[in-house]
TrEMBL record:
Transmembrane segments: none
Domain Carboxymuconolactone decarboxylase-like: 47-108
Protein name as annotated: Alkyl hydroperoxide reductase AhpD
Gene3D superfamilies: AhpD-like
Length: 187
């Protein structure tokens, strides 16, 4: 196996029961275990806590569509130059949108992608919150409301953006390598 983190990566057979269950569920749903799971298994309690929060924000029906949540993931990950998340969520955006060029374009420059007015407003919000969080103002929320997003959707978008900023930093700081399987997903 190629190196997937700059830290030690525990062997699957010695992982605690909760981590083994997470790996089994990933294998059943995706056909493989994401390297982000393997790499964070060094501290199993924090892996499971992170996954619970991540799963709640990203992998469920909510106030934003799956495409919108993955769009935010790719915008944030592209801005942060997080290889792991840009590749893995680019694959998810390919799959959820059915548009093979969308994720690649969004990862490079979302302004060049064909987006709805609401998606463009979400991307602009994600960019500002990622790049210049100290410059956020109440007007940013008015811009989202003008794009027909309600307060529930705005809160969810903010939380998803925050989750990806945190996950990008962990993944980049520790050299997480995306699984090769992502390269063929959605293509």
């Amino acid at each position: 196996m190629n190196r997937i983190s700059w830290l030690a990566v525990p062997d699957d057979t010695t992982a605690p029961e909760g981590v083994q269950k997470l790996h089994a569920k990933a294998r059943a749903n995706l056909g493989f275990v994401p390297n982000v799971f393997r790499a964070q298994a060094l501290n199993p309690d924090t892996l499971l806590a992170w996954w619970n929060d991540f799963n709640t924000l990203v992998n469920r029906d909510g106030h934003l569509s799956t495409i919108d949540r993955e769009l935010l993931a790719v915008v944030v990950s592209g801005l942060n130059r997080c290889t792991y998340c840009a590749v893995s969520h680019g694959a998810a955006l390919h799959e959820s949108s059915g548009d093979p060029a969308l994720a690649d374009t969004v990862a490079m420059n979302w302004r060049h992608a064909t987006l709805s007015a609401q998606q463009a407003a979400l991307c602009a919000y994600a960019e500002k919150l990622t790049v210049t969080p100290a410059h956020m103002t109440e007007q940013d929320l008015h811009d989202l409301r003008a794009a027909c997003l309600n307060d529930h959707a705005i809160l969810e978008a903010t939380q998803v953006i925050g989750m990806f900023n945190m996950t990008n930093r962990v993944s980049s700081a520790l050299g997480f390598t995306p699984n090769a399987e992502y390269n063929s997903k959605g293509r």
